[in-house]
Amino acid sequence: MSFEEQVNPLFQIDEESWLTALPPYQQRRIKQLLESSDSYEDAAKKWLTAIPENTFPFAAEKGKSIFFEKVWNEVEKFLCGDEAYAKERKELVSATEVIHTTLVSSLSLAIAPVIGTASAYVTPVVVLIFMTMGKISLNAWCQMRMEQKK
After folding, report:
1. 45, 65 contact by CB (below 8 A)
2. How many domains, in total, are found in the chain?
3. What is the chain's mean pLDDT, rounded?
4. Which domain holds residue 84?
5. How many CA atoms within 13 Å lie on the side-chain side of 80?
6. Do 91 and 40 touch, CB atoms closer than 8 A?
7. Which long-range contacts (CB under 8 A, 24 or more apart) does 65-73 make?
8. Of 119, 117, 16, 17, the residue nearest 67 (C-alpha)
9. pLDDT score of 54
10. Tell me: the pLDDT tens digits for 62-120?
């Protein structure tokens, strides 16, 4: 079974179900951020500024946007078939049945070194990105991202 065939059903779950991929303390904090945010993206950017300074190499408001975009781009590469993550995708689908918690942790572990941060720090942002995808197929989301870049 291909990566897309295994992952697509995960994006049909209720958006809130993605939160269960986080440890309870992060679930509580993300729920608080969602209550005071206009969007999942806004909550992700608030998460990035709620963590102590020097966690990532950017500064202030512009920095959290740059960092969020960097995470967003790496998530896209991982999900949409970029060769940079071919090994990680292959390991993910061959190791076990892919469930949303496995996908979140595998993706976070894969992209954390690329963006220069700890996977525990980026995991809530990955979850919020997945929540923005809603109940759209992976292929449709990848196509939408390509069109947005044009």
Report:
1. yes
2. 1
3. 85
4. 3-149
5. 14
6. no
7. 67/115, 68/41, 68/44, 68/125, 70/115, 71/44, 71/111, 71/115, 71/122, 71/125, 71/126, 71/129, 72/129
8. 117
9. 40
10. 455 778 889 999 999 999 999 999 999 988 888 667 788 889 999 999 999 999 889 99
Q: Report the amino acid identity of residue 86.
A: A
Tell which residue, 121, 142, 102, 82, has the closest CA to residue 10: 102
Q: Which two tokens stand for residue 122?
A: 């980026």
**24 neighbors 150 (Cβ within 8 angstroms):** no
| Type of residue numbered 15 | E
Within 8 A by CB and 6+ apart from 21, the residues are 100, 101, 103, 104, 105, 123, 127
CB neighbour burial string for 84-111, b if at least 16 within 10 angstroms, e if fewer: ebeebbeebbeeeebebebbbbbbbebb
Give me the residue label for tokens 């044009």.
150
